[in-house]
Amino acid sequence: MALSLQNRVLTVLLFALLSFKATSSSHHHHHHHHQGLKSLHFSLFQHETINRTGYIIVKGVAGPGVSQTTTPFGTLFAFQDPMTVTANRTSKLVGIAEGTSITSGLDGLRSISIAKITLRLKNHSGSISIVGGTHNIKPSDHPVVGGTGDFLFVQGYVTSSPVNLKGLTVTYKIEFHLYWPPYATHTSS
Ligand SMILES: *[C@@H]1O[C@H](CO)[C@@H](O)[C@H](O)[C@H]1NC(C)=O
Ligand SMILES: *[C@@H]1O[C@H](CO)[C@@H](O)[C@H](O)[C@H]1NC(C)=O
Ligand SMILES: *[C@@H]1O[C@H](CO)[C@@H](O)[C@H](O)[C@H]1NC(C)=O
């Protein structure tokens, strides 16, 4: 009897916790002010030119063929793409995205991506590493797993959204939301 009551209380608590999480995550575009937490928010544009900055290394085995937006399941792709300050490829180059993606959706639209983004911004130089799922035609969030240089210990996420998928060069908008934990801001400035 006491145990089942405990279980019920636990269930209610868990449910409350889960619905709170769901509520707060649906509002993630509003910027909460993290008191005392150093953060940086900015956007860059990544340009990828097939057979010049990005190549299919291993052909996939199932699902749709290679098109502007799809690659067969299992395709291994590698890239070293320039990142500029506006959607115009000729705008100022401030970053390089190097990485790989493997098509993980049988629909040919989803992949798992790993990338190191080297940045040379006005006040911050270094790299951040990201990993996560990418959707070829929809915005995707990638967790930041860490960084080097001025981005040492950095956390947060980047959102990648397609801007232009037509032509030999495709462009993605990359929104960075970076947060330094307290122990990182004490060791670097
Ligand atoms: C890229 O190179 C591959 C292999 O040489 C070729 O099959 C493919 O047609 C090329 N793609 C484009 C868009 O030029
Ligand atoms: C991109 O920038 C160049 C150089 O500033 C300019 O000539 C060109 O028109 C721009 N392209 C677009 C699509 O705005
Ligand atoms: C860059 O650093 C300078 C001097 O330290 C500071 O005045 C400026 O506000 C900083 N700019 C940004 C965008 O953080």
TrEMBL record:
Keywords attached to this entry: Apoplast, Secreted, Signal
Domain of life: Eukaryota
Source organism of the structure: Quercus lobata
Protein name: Dirigent protein
Main subcellular localisation: secreted
Matching PANTHER family: DIRIGENT PROTEIN (PTHR47586:SF1)
Role according to the record: Dirigent proteins impart stereoselectivity on the phenoxy radical-coupling reaction, yielding optically active lignans from two molecules of coniferyl alcohol in the biosynthesis of lignans, flavonolignans, and alkaloids and thus plays a central role in plant secondary metabolism.
UniProt xrefs under InterPro entries: Allene_oxi_cyc_Dirigent (IPR044859), Dirigent (IPR004265)
Keyword Signal: yes
Localization in the cell: Secreted, Extracellular space, Apoplast
Gene: LOC115994914
Pfam family membership, one: Dirigent
Family according to the record: Belongs to the plant dirigent protein family.
Keyword Signal among record annotations: yes
